[in-house]
Design a protein that fits this description.
The protein is an alpha+beta fold. The protein is 22% helix and 34% strand. The protein has two helices and six strands, in the order αβββαβββ. It starts with a helix and ends in a 12-residue tail after the last strand.
């Protein structure tokens, strides 16, 4: 859990550097981990991370995909999967898997309560 939480925080900082305002979804163990907004674009993001140097869209099961889509609707957000492999992230739209944003994750720049 700690590794995944750190990657969520790194993805949040990655998006902040690109001009998004971020919020962590309540109960982030649910279908939406982060909510990001920039201009008129709002994203409901599920973060899936691995220590492996390979990841794929199949990290999201059909049930998880449906839950993400359903959770994004009331938020008026686009459902997005953030695939994290080590220190690189790919954001892809759900369910059509269109690439959106990608890039290298940096070490966390802030101290977060409960996270060392």
């Amino acid at each position: 859990y700690a590794y995944g939480r750190r990657k969520e925080l790194q993805v949040a900082e990655f998006l902040e550097r690109r001009g998004f305002d971020l919020g962590r979804a309540r109960a982030s163990r649910g279908p939406v981990d982060l909510v990001a907004e920039r201009s008129k674009t709002r994203l409901a993001i599920q973060v899936k991370s691995t220590r492996s140097d390979v990841t794929s869209y199949t990290r999201l099961s059909p049930n998880e995909e449906m839950r993400l889509i359903r959770s994004a609707g009331p938020r008026k957000a686009k459902p997005v999967l953030a695939l994290v492999s080590q220190n690189y992230v790919w954001l892809v739209s759900v369910p059509n898997q269109d690439p959106m944003i990608e890039g290298e994750l940096k070490p966390l720049r802030y101290e977060y309560p409960g996270h060392s």
